[in-house]
Each structure stands twice: as C-alpha cells, then as structure tokens.
Amino acid sequence: MEASLEDKTPAGALTVRQGPSHGEELKASDEAITFMSSIEPVELLRCVFADSLVTVSEGGRQVGSFSVTLEFARRIQQPCVLLHAQSQGAIDDSPCGTTVTAYLNTNLEVLEEDYHEYVKLEGHTLEKRCHMVQHDGQMMINKVTTVGEEVTRESVSYPTSALRGLVTEGSTLLLMRLIALRKTVPQNMTFISLNQDLHMFHITLSELGVKQLDIGGETVEVFGMERTIHSVEESPATWQCYFLEDGHLASRVHVGSPVTVRLLHLPSQPEKGFEKIPLVWEEDMEMWSKFLDRKEELKADHGSYLRKHPEIRAIISDFLQLLLLWKPDDVFRFAKDYFLPFASQQPPDSNLKASSS
Q1: Alpha-carbon distance 252 to 64, whole Å?
Q2: What percent of the chain clears pLDDT 90, i.e. is strictly above it?
Q3: Quick one: DSSP state of residue 3?
C-alpha cells in the first residue's frame, strides 16, 4: 500500500509518497527490456541530429512549433546522451508550451530529467514542473504544480530495480528515433512510465508500416509507429508518428486532436560520393569520453608537477612582469635574453639533447 503524508505549509500542499510495494509493480515486457539493452553506441551516433517541425491546425494554419536536439555529454563523469525537446503553441488562444531536458545512458535509462509545462490563461498561469534523478539506488521525483498563486508540491521515490523498462517524455523521443532507424517494431513492446500523478502505467509501441507522405512538394516514403498510453483511470491515448529513412520525424499526431505536428521541408542531405568522410571525433561518444578522461589525467599530472616545483610560477611571473614593463618589439629576442642565464644551469646531457633537436 502507498504511504502518504500531507503537510499544509505557506508555500502550498506537500505530499510525500513511496512507490508501490513489489506486488503492485507494473512491469515492462521482456522484449522491451531486451531492446533497450541491445542499443549499440554506433546507433546512438546516428541519432545525433536535430528535428524541427511545426504544429498545423485542421485548416492548415501554423499554430506552433516542435523541436528536438540530441548531443553527447557527460554527467558526473559518466558519458551520456543529452536530449532537449521543446514545443510551443496555443490552446484556445492561450499560449502554452512544454520543455524536456533529459540525460540518458546508452541503455536509455534516465539519469536525470526535467519536465516543464505551462499554459498562460487569462488572469493566471497553470504551470507544472517535474524533476527526476537517480540517487543511491532510488529514482527521486519532485513535482511542483502552480495554479495562479497556489503551489502544490509532491515527492515520490521508486527503487531503480523496479523501473526496468521505464520510458519518459525524453527517453521516448530517442527510443522511437532508434526504432525508426531499425525500421521495425519488435512484437510485444510494452514499457512502463509515470503519469501526471506520478503513478505507473503501461506504454505500448506497435508498427504502422510504410506509407507515402508529401513533404515540401516531394513524395517520400515514411515508416510509422503508434504509441499508446494505457491508463487505469482514463481511456487509452494514442499518438501516431512517421519517420524518414534517416530517422528524422516527419509527422506526429495525437489521435482525436485537431492539430498535427508536421515537417515542412526535407532536411538537407549530404552529397553522395566516394570521398572519405572525415571523423568528427567530438561527436563520437567513445572517443569523446576518452578525450575527457585523458584531459582530466593530464590536468592532474600537470597540477601535481607545478605543486612540486613552485619556482616555475615565480620564473614565469617575473618574466611577464619584465615583458610588460619593457614592452619590447621583438618578444622572442627578449625571451631568449631573459632565459639565457638559465641555460648554464642545465646538466650537459640536457644541452646535448637540446642542440641535437
């Protein structure tokens, strides 16, 4: 059973809950967990690109925008993927928007995620913010809901062992991008997620197949999949998404909604040829990780050497002071004259090596 505690404070209502007991846990399917653990770094590398779409009404009027960016990053010295998604628009002429920032590991496990949603109504603003982060084997979740001046806070924690197969707003976007690149949705893809009340529910993904879609005056083939949210309290909610061959999102619609998220123009494609494509090592997750590790190793080594030889800082400081005092036109000649007396203090082997080089 859930343990709950309510405490009325000047800042609003605070509710602290624990996750359900083991017997009440919802579970993801084995196929979903297997898919998440099968993701290769090279697949993630293919997902590092931006999506930029518009929201269009039934009458064809542009009423909003939707964007997703993905990049490699590090969080607490751990290589990860940083995803940022944002949507903006209006509901009955009231401005609204959603922002998601998520740090995910290579198995799409959420390390940290911040979800922010708002609707600016006449006279007040409705705002929801949810932050989740892994800490000491627990997923700590804090939610703040603001309606005008009334603030409600809620906290809940789940053991990470109970969250295998968890997907969130952020990880779902990357998950569907990966599936689109594989061009097939495995059978029985059932994941778990958390609703607005921080309770678990099931999400299923199923394949819609291939169809033709007009984008910017060109007819292209797109691959579709359907995401369904299964709620105990409400009827299932379904989204249908179609992707280009390279994984770019082409269209997204909430079934029953009068608006569609749509790609207006095809993304520019690199010219095909036989030239060798240079490696952009900053975008290679493994190489970037090695670079950062080596960078920290060198910083520590150099710092240790400078601490053991404080005379280095004294010499450099004295040289810079004289340089700025005299302001010579020939800086190299000035440096040579300044450091020349130090050459006589070198052992014979060092002079020999210096002359031979």
Answers
A1: 13
A2: 49
A3: -
**pLDDT digit string, tens, across residues 119-161:** 988 888 899 999 999 989 999 999 999 998 899 999 999 999 9
pLDDT reported for residue 9:
40
Strand-pair partners of 159:
138
Pairing of strands 150-159, 12-18: parallel
Token pair, residue 182, equals 């594989």
Q: What are phi and psi of 288, to 5 degrees?
A: -65, -40
What CA–CA distance (Å, rounded) separates 200 from 209? 29
The whole-number pLDDT of residue 355 equals: 41
Under 8 Å CB-to-CB from 26, ≥6 apart: which residues?
A: 192, 200, 201, 202
Q: What is the DSSP string of 127-164?
A: EEEEEEEEETTEEEEEEEEEETTEEEEEEEEEEGGGGT
Q: Partners of 325 in the beta sheet?
A: none
Conformational region of residue 142, where left means phi above 0, alpha means psi within -120 to 50, and beta covers everything else: beta
Report yes or no: 63 and 90 within 8 Å, Cβ to Cβ: yes
User: C-alpha dihedral over 214, 217, 218, 224, to 10 degrees?
Assistant: -20
* Range 207-242 burial, b when 16+ CB lie within 10 A, else e: beeeeebebeeeeeebbbbebbbeeeeeeeeebbbb
**Long-range contacts at 216-223 (CB < 8 A, ≥ 24 apart):** 216/263, 216/264, 216/265, 216/266, 218/266, 220/244, 220/250, 220/266, 221/245, 222/250, 222/251, 223/180, 223/183
Backbone phi, then psi, for 216, in 5-degree steps? 60, 35
CA distance linking residue 13 with residue 143, whole number of Å:
11
What 3-state class would DSSP assign to 281?
A: helix
Report the residue count for the chain.
Answer: 357
Burial class (CB in 10 A: 0-12, 13-18, 19+), 16: middle
**Site of tokens 């036109």:** 329
Give dist(CA 343, CA 331) in Å, integer.
18
